[in-house]
Design a protein that fits this description.
alpha/beta; Rossmann fold; Phosphorylase Kinase, domain 1; 3 domains; six-stranded antiparallel beta sheet; Transferase(Phosphotransferase), domain 1
């Protein structure tokens, strides 16, 4: 896929400033058109420099498919035809659940097209942006779960002797049941291929340094590993690892060897154990980088496993005078941490007495407790040596930003508004536990 081309999900309403804007609309077979007697066009779902992606119905097999049609303005370009066919062949050579499957290749009124699996859902770029607008960051488990599947897909592509060469969030699809599928091999390169074009192609922020500086770079899996490292950094921190927005800044940043700030320094709540993995994936010296996506995937797995061992919630205390809310939080945490001992109490004084005697690896408390309220209980805990670093999450049905600012001063790790979302609660609990041992 060339820079600016969108993935196979719905057209994105907005594009962050560091992602290239899509090109102007181009001609495409209109809705209702039937290609090859079986593919009925429904609508356009993606546009790019290489072509248009359509949602269509395979009337013979009664299933939705995605169809990529070469851009009409490239019809007279023999190299574009060769590249388009090459992309189809590269996709056809791979059979893996984490790579979009190719079904067929054909022509419509002289326009080449190929038919692919349609992955309903969204692309990773849109997924990240939508969560950012809600002020929600991907959890460590979400991030590593997505990256694990992306690495598996890239590994399958590499096994077929191909480098993707355009790994970016827009080319990572997220479908039902959180299935991840790599798409768009429009800029693929053969393993070991030497690029003599003297052109920088791809999306600048995700291009590996060796591709920029070599007069004739030889493509190998480590270029894709670098791009995955960029995505990992972006998901974990909410920002790009380097200030690269275009080709000039790409050259400038790498020529000046601008350092990458460790993720945990950007977001202190992140465990430092992940820093080494992400920074190695982003190594400018290609010889120091992970050799394959599988190596990167396994390194992330080891880091997460170690965090899981160290951050095991052995004792959890839930403090709330609302019986229903307390039961819901406790049930959620028992499910998320099956080996943990979850204790429930109704007020701050009882909680303080319990914690002084038994301690805890995590405390979830209501802001509006009878007697000693949540702020007072938090302040008291921070004054007790063996409890001053215990992770604390505060839930409330009435509190606001002013309360959160006060609680932050006491080192509270999270603030949730009732009714509490189970997924957010677990994500914050894991993050707080990771931070406490990171």
């Amino acid at each position: 896929m060339e820079e600016g081309e969108e993935a196979l999900g719905e057209e994105r309403p907005a594009t962050p400033r560091w992602r290239s804007q899509p090109p102007a609309a181009m001609d495409a077979p209109p809705p209702g058109t039937v290609l090859d007697g079986m593919y009925r066009v429904e609508r356009v779902i993606g546009r790019g420099g290489m072509g248009v992606v359509l949602l269509a119905t395979d009337e013979r097999l009664e299933r939705e498919v995605a169809i990529k049609v070469i851009a009409p303005d490239r019809m007279g370009n023999a190299k574009a035809h060769e590249s388009f066919l090459g992309e189809a062949r590269a996709m056809a050579s791979v059979r893996h659940e984490n790579v979009v499957q190719l079904y067929a290749y054909g022509q419509f009124e002289g326009l080449p097209y190929f038919v692919m699996e349609y992955v309903p859902g969204t692309d990773l770029g849109t997924w990240i942006d939508e969560r950012a607008t809600r002020g929600v960051s991907p959890s460590i488990d979400e991030t590593l779960g997505i990256l694990d599947q992306a690495c598996r897909g890239l590994g399958a592509i590499h096994e077929r002797g191909v480098v993707h060469a355009d790994v970016k969030p827009g080319n990572v699809l997220i479908g039902p049941s959180f299935r991840v599928a790599m798409t768009d091999l429009g800029l693929f390169r053969a393993l070991g291929e030497r690029d003599l074009s003297e052109l920088v192609v791809g999306t600048p922020a995700y291009i590996a340094p060796e591709v920029v500086y070599s007069r004739a770079p030889v493509f190998d899996p480590r270029a894709d590993v670098y791009a995955v490292g960029v995505i990992a950094y972006e998901m974990l921190t909410g920002r790009m690892p380097l200030p690269i927005e275009d080709v000039p800044s790409l050259f400038d940043v790498h020529s000046k060897r601008v350092p990458v700030i460790p993720p945990s320094e950007v977001r202190p709540e992140l465990p430092s154990a992940l820093d080494a993995v992400v920074l190695r994936a982003l190594e400018r010296d290609v010889s120091q980088r992970f050799s394959t996506p599988d190596e990167l995937r396994r390194a992330f797995f080891r880091a997460r496993s170690e965090l899981g061992k160290r951050a095991l919630a052995s004792r959890v205390l839930v403090v709330d005078d609302d019986d229903d809310a307390r039961a819901m939080v406790s049930e959620t945490l028992r499910f998320a941490f099956p080996k943990a001992e979850v204790t429930e109490v109704r007020d701050g004084a009882e909680a303080l007495a319990h914690l002084e005697r038994h301690g805890a690896s995590l405390v979830v408390l209501d802001l509006d407790l009878p007697g000693m309220n949540g702020v007072e209980l938090t302040a008291a805990l921070r004054g007790i040596p063996h409890l001053e670093k215990v992770p604390i999450l505060v839930v409330t049905g009435h509190g606001g930003s002013a309360d959160w600012r006060v609680l932050q001063k006491f080192g509270t790790d999270g603030f949730l508004v009732k009714p509490v979302d189970s997924y957010t609660l677990v994500a914050l609990a894991r993050r707080a536990l990771d931070k406490s041992v990171g």
